[in-house]
Amino acid sequence: MLRPENREKLFTSLRQMSRREFFSATGKVAAMAAATDLVMQFGHHIISYAPHSFQPVELAYGADKFTFAYVSDTHLFARGMTHRFAKAAMKAVQDVNAMSPPPDFVLFGGDLAQLGQAEELKLGKEILDELKAKRYMMVGEHDWYFDMGEKWRELFGNPWYAFDHKGVHFVVLNSVIVEDYWTAPKMKPMERMLFMAQLDNPKGRPFTVGEEQREWLGKNLAQVDKTTPLVIFSHSPLYKYYKPWNFWTDDAEAVQKLLASFTSVTVIHAHTHQVLTNRIGNIHFHGVLSTAWPWPYAPEGLPKLTVQMDRADPFNQFDGCGWGNVDLLATGQANKIYRLWDRNPTVVTAAQMESGKAATPGPSY
Amino acid sequence: MRTRLVIGALGLVAGIAVAGALVVTWHVNAAGAAGPFAMHVASASDEPWITKTVTACDKKKTVIVEGYRQGAVLPHEKARQVAKLLMALMKYCDYRVLARLPQQETTVYLSIEGRPFVEMREVEQNLPLLLVHGGVPHTEREMRVWAAEQKRVIEEGYNLFHGSSLGTNGISCDMCHPNASNTHPETYPKFQTQLKAFALLRDMINWCIENPMEGKKLTGDDPKMKALEAYILSARAGKALDPGKH
Question: Is pLDDT of B234 > 80?
Fold first, then answer.
């Protein structure tokens, strides 16, 4: 449905169109009757149509199409450039550098290090410094819980921030904040780090974005027009998938509430090392690949929209791993491309997600 | 050669066999001593042949003495045989045991918990192992040892699986296999295409140790291998066996 506040803008824009533009536009509508993704552009005004009804469903202003890339979850050990994870991270950097046209920027999704060691983070920085495009950094729990983010902040700055790019508002969050359970039992830094690094740790605690950041996010978003496309980066998924592996953010609902009033919201998250697709209301969620290893799908809680990637071949180091990119459409919505090494790319389009089509059941793990 | 049950002809008062039901607390006594149990003797008049049944005070051990008429007094030797037999049957604790004592033979036939009668051999030394654990329930101590050993080995496997000691590059099994997922122990043995060989779970464990983890493979009987298998299998408990599944 066309939002009432946008209906007027649409008709104003249609009235302002020249006769030629108008007929061109209506002709395109007819031509695209069978298409799945009906997007029309009138100058800077974007209208997309639901194919079954030809009713305008959405308006967004000022967005230009562009692409950004991501590299994530490199989990580097301080064992030099010959370690298999370092080689995989370099492979991703080379692939991103080879993109043509180049991406507008690259997002690093967190878990640069395996055990939060200064040497690991420095090695990671060295590898990522090879990226030609502008780089944005996000933090993961493997980077954080040895020294509570001290080295990471020294190398990369504030772990949460916002920026604007070609009409899209981007926010980077630190979603791996965990309630302090280490002080009371006097855990040493490495004990705490190993505790956090173990995915299937039954004594683990859930990730949160936390009150401080949510308050900051609320204030930040208050400055942004509701029709401005939002892209949020978080390390953990900003929803609840599988708690025993911390594929989970405990205050996800509170964060989603802050995003609910925006027309177009895309959340790109890391941590799960797998093709992962979810939609909650207006929010589209995409998990990203790791360069180091693929996680299996969790035994329960997998979002319905996810088309599972095939079981990785353990005999091929790079299978199930890779990098990827996101094409921001003129509507402000995103098409997500998984660049799986040694496999064909997997594309999850905004149109597929809007259709809410149930995913084909994947292999069982 | 089969050793038949031979009953010693020691002095057991024949009258005990025909005494009314007495409740006597069972206690271990020197073999042959009178009165370790009370016997209830009754005739089974509906049988085509005349038998006497003697039931111990726990109401669970019964001896059928064949070939005697109602009211007849068991000969001394026979009564002693019955008493000794009932005493031996007490080893079966809570189980219901029916023993058949033919008149002309010294062989005994036993039926435990309604199972078919089997011939008993060397009754004084070894009762037949008709039930697991000799028909005696596991003691609490045995159960505790069993559970503790199971837990110990699984935990050892868990620690190996979640640590990097088996490899040389910091990588551990749980990185790709949280909760041992994607290990599929229930599908082994199978032809592992990539190895071009018929493989056991341990062959694949060794492949992972040698390749992604860059460590040295374990021998099949290495306690570490046993522990890894114990953990992996315990984590997949309840999964149906499906050997050969790709």
Answer: yes
